[in-house]
Amino acid sequence: MAEQKRADYASTRPQTDGAWVAAVEEGSPAWEAGIEPGMRVVSVNGVEPRDLIDWRWEADGGTCDLEVFDPRDGTTTPCTLEREPGQDWGVDFTDVLFDGIRTCVNACQFCFMTMLPPEARASLTLRDDDYRLSFLQGNFVTLTNVSDEEAERIVTCGLSPMNVSIHAITPEVRRSLIGRHADRGIEVLERLLAGGIEVHAQIVLCPGINDGAELAATLDWAEARPGITSLAVVPLGYTKHSRRFNRSYSDDPEAAREVVRLIEPYQRRAREALGITRFQLSDEFYVAARLEVPPAETYDGYPQFYDGIGMLRSFLDEASLVARERPGDLALVDERLGEKGLRLTLVCGEAAAETIDVFARLLSPSGRASVTAIRNDYFGGDVNVTGLIVSEDLLAQLPKDLNGMLVVLPEVMFNFDKLTLDGDTQERILDELERRGARAIVSVTSPTDYLDALLAALSS
Known about the structure:
By secondary structure, the chain is of the alpha/beta class. It has 3 domains: about 20-95, Pdz3 Domain (Roll); about 130-310, pyruvate-formate lyase- activating enzyme, CATH 3.80.30; about 315-460, Rossmann fold (3-Layer(aba) Sandwich), CATH 3.40.50. Helices cover about 35% and strands about 15% of the residues. The chain has 15 helices and 13 strands. Strands 4-3-2-1-5 form a 5-stranded antiparallel sheet. The protein is globular, with a radius of gyration of 24 Å.
C-alpha cells in the first residue's frame, strides 16, 4: 500500500453544527467588526451558510452583511464587513461543513471501515461520502447520495475539480461492488461532466471482480470522457479482520504485472493525443510487480499524489535533488551523528522501506543511518503503509534498549489530534522512546523535511 502525506482518519473532536468562529486575524475586517472566536455566523447576506462553499460564494464581494450569534449573552447582532481588493475577511471556522457531514449510503465490498479491529474507536468508523469534502479537501466520493439540487449546485458554483470513485462501469459489476445505489453515481457523474466539471477519478481494483475485462471496459468509458483528466487505479487493501478478502495484488506479482501491462496502451494513447499520461497506477502495483516506478514526467504533475500515485518517484527524485543541492548539510548530519555518538533510524512502513533506505544511505555513507520498517500486526492482511503504523506495533518492534539512537517517527502515523490509530498519543510515545534511552523526533517523510528536522535536532 502507498505512502500518504498525512494520516487521513477522523479527529476525536466532536463535530458541531453551525459556522462557529475558530480564529480572527487582528486588524482584519472581521476583527474590526467585533467578531471573536466562539461566535457563530448565523447568516451571510441573508443566507444561512451550510458550509465553507456558501461562505465563499456569498462573501465574494467587497462587503457582506452578517448576523452573528454570541453564546455568552445569547444575542444575535447584525454587522457589515468591508474589505479592500484582495484582502481576506480574516475569519477561520472550526470546520468546513456547518450542517453536518453527508454519510455513505453504499455497501462496498472493499470498504476498509468494515475491516477495522472490533476495538477501534467510533470516530474511525464514520463513513463519509460528502461531495463538498471532495471539492474542499480532495476526498474521493461516489456521488451515489447526491440529489439533483446538489448536482446543480456543483455545476452552478463550479466546484471543480471533483474526486470521484468509479470502480467499475458495467452496471451489474458496480452494483455487486458498491450496492443498490451504484447507478446513481454514474448518472450524477455524467451530469457533472456535461456541466464542465473536471474530474479526477479512482478505481479500487479487486482481484477477480473489476480487473481484467471489466477494468478495460471502465478505462474505455473514461477514455471517451475528456472531462476525466486523471484516473487512478489503486489495489484493494485488506486486513486480518476482513471476512471477504484474503489476497490482493501485493500477494501476486504476476497479477500486478498484468495490470501494468493492461493500462500501458491507455497511457501511451493519452500521451500521444493529449501530452499527459492520464491513466495512473498507484505505487503499490510497481512494488508488487517488482518493477521500477515510472519517471516523474509520466505523473502529469502528480494530480493524485495523495492517492498514492507517484509518491515513491517523488521521494526518489527529491532525494537526488537534495544530494545535488545540499551536500554540505548531508555531510553535516553524518558528522554530528559521529560527534554525538548517535545512530539514526528512520521509522516507516514496510512498503516504503527500500525507497527511504536510499535517503538513509545519502544521510550517512558511513552507515550511521538506517531504516526501521514496522510490520503492521494490528491490522494484518496486506496493510504496510507508514500512515497506518500504530503505537502497539511500533513499541513492540523497536528495541527495549535505544541508548545512542536518534529515532525519527513519521508525522503521517498521527492524526491532527496527534493520536495513532490505536489511540495512543504522540507525547506518550516520545516519552516512552526517551525512557528507553533514545532521542526521538517527528518529521514529515520527505527528504527535505527529514534533513531540516535532523539538522535542528542535532544542533542542540
